[in-house]
Amino acid sequence: MAQGSRSDEQTDPCTLLIVNDQGDAVEPRSACLVVIRGERLGERIEPDALPAVIGRGSDADFRIPSPSVSRRHCRVLQDRGTWWVEDLRSTNLTLVNEHPIDRRPLNDGDRIRVGDSELKFLAAGSTEAIYLAKLHEHVIRDELTGLHNRRHLMAGLDDELARRRQRMDSPLSLAILDVDHFKAINDRAGHLVGDEVLRQLARLLEGAVRETDLLARIGGEEFAVLMPDSGLAPARSICERLRSAVERAEFAVAAGSGIGTVTVSIGLAEWGAGMNEASDLLRAADAELYRAKREGRNRVYG
Ligand SMILES: Nc1nc2c(ncn2[C@@H]2O[C@H](COP(=O)(O)OP(=O)(O)OP(=O)(O)O)[C@@H](O)[C@H]2O)c(=O)[nH]1
């Protein structure tokens, strides 16, 4: 091919590719809506989620849990390549660039106001979309391990619970893992070695959970795994596999650190009767973790 000519397969050499700490591309490949104000700041609605009803109700596809937002506030859809927004008779109206609308096509930079939240429409490859994607990665990641953080876990849990309120038949389990006697590791080997243990533990857990599970570091030496579509029995075998993998792992830390065998205690709970909100599930898993600690550590309870 002559120099300077292009084929359809060639990518634009000027395309800016942004990657996160794990090397995954976070560049949005197509147009999207990004929350720029209010609840769920930084989150986005992508074309594969369309059509999407935005609202406060549990049957909304993109939930904004604010009293200023109607249960089914507006809908975003795509029609022959164009994005549209239409109001669904919301109490506080849907505004685009501060003007109330019934139905309207979206152009790059348009701002949709839904109650006290605001979403911005960004065309494919816009510099702002790339910048916001990178920023959002920072907001949902734990700096030390690169895993998702507590904030992202809670958002994921809220989404899962919203889905379950519509179809109650699908199980959901949550495990909380806590490193045993981690203070002793820090005291004996130093804080930097402690940090390295947490990083290596994160990689180990990452390799051991399923792709559909949501793994997060939710505290100092505390991790969580959200397991959609898993009841207690399958979740328990996954946790047992994690516990045993940690116990058998050799952590590569400075010679002479003397950290010995690292173990984790795991508390597990399934979403069920008597639970109304995310904190109920967390509390149940935490109670099982406490029991696992009290009864000897390096075990799975729940
Ligand atoms: N190196 C390191 N240490 C941390 C980090 N976050 C919390 N810690 C330490 O983790 C330790 C947790 O100690 P404890 O809560 O007493 O629990 P533990 O020693 O693990 O004992 P059990 O949980 O009862 O088995 C504390 O010493 C914290 O300072 C971190 O990011 N890096």
Automatic annotation (TrEMBL):
It comes from the Bacteria. Pfam families: FHA, GGDEF. GO terms for molecular function: diguanylate cyclase activity. Its cofactor is Mg(2+). GO terms for cellular component: plasma membrane. SMART domains: FHA (SM00240), GGDEF (SM00267). GO terms for biological process: cell adhesion involved in single-species biofilm formation; negative regulation of bacterial-type flagellum-dependent cell motility. It catalyses: 2 GTP = 3',3'-c-di-GMP + 2 diphosphate. InterPro entries: Diguanylate_Cyclase, FHA_dom, GGDEF_dom, Nucleotide_cyclase, Rev_trsase/Diguanyl_cyclase, SMAD_FHA_dom_sf. Its EC number is 2.7.7.65. This is diguanylate cyclase.
